[in-house]
Amino acid sequence: MYLTNTRLEITFFVEQLSHFLDKPTIAHYNAVIRILKYIKGVPGLGLFFSSNSFVHLKAFYDNDWETCNDSRQ
């Protein structure tokens, strides 16, 4: 969870892989390994949240699940 908040470039891929947690395959395992290798290769990339600063976070959420081919809920 922490990495998806600080490493925004992997958030989409982690979310897509989380759809297959109940029945993962070798392809999903290989995708996870690729993500972990990417994270290991660029350790300094990401967001830093200082403990003494005020963070005001704004976000957008698109709940149009009908157009998502993977979940359609």
Per DSSP, what share of the residues sits in E-state strands of 2 or more residues?
Answer: under 5%
Distance between the termini: 23 Å
Find the count of extended strands (DSSP E, 2+ residues).
0
Helix percentage range: 25-40%
Could you walk me through the main structural features you see in this protein, from its secondary elements to its overall organization?
This protein is an all-alpha fold and 73 residues long. It has helices spanning 2-6, 11-18, 26-41. It has one domain (2-67). It has three helices and no strands. It is flat. The model has no long low-confidence stretch (mean pLDDT 78).
Structure in a nutshell:
The chain is mainly α and about 70 residues long. It is built from 3 helices and no strands.
Task: Output the keywords.
73 residues; 40% helix; mainly alpha; flat
List the helices and strands and how they pair.
Elements: H1 2-6, H2 11-18, H3 26-41
